[in-house]
Amino acid sequence: MTDLLDTPDAMAPNDSGPEKSAYISMTVADDSAFKKCVKLKSMELPIDQISMKMEGDGVDPALLDKPSNVSPNDVGASRTAIAS
């Protein structure tokens, strides 16, 4: 029998994983399209400059203030909007 400490990345015997219907949405901070802008904000670059870059890239700068919101590039978000 293997010890749990020997295999820390293995799935626990009583854990069945996420529900099959569970969907984990992609946040603005996790979206590759916004990662650079979120990083620039964390480096305390002027918000005006970051906003201009985002507008130039065709992205809504208001998303920078809400990094935990669901990204507009999330596939599940568009499916939810269609279903509504």
Automatic annotation (TrEMBL):
InterPro entries for the chain: WASHC3
Positions of the UniProt region annotated as Disordered: 1-20, 58-84
Pfam families recorded: CCDC53
Gene Ontology CC: one annotated term: WASH complex
GO biological process: actin filament polymerization; exocytosis
Superkingdom in the source lineage: Eukaryota
Coiled-coil residue windows: none
Family: Belongs to the CCDC53 family.
Name this polypeptide is given: Uncharacterized protein
Organism from which the protein derives: Peronospora farinosa
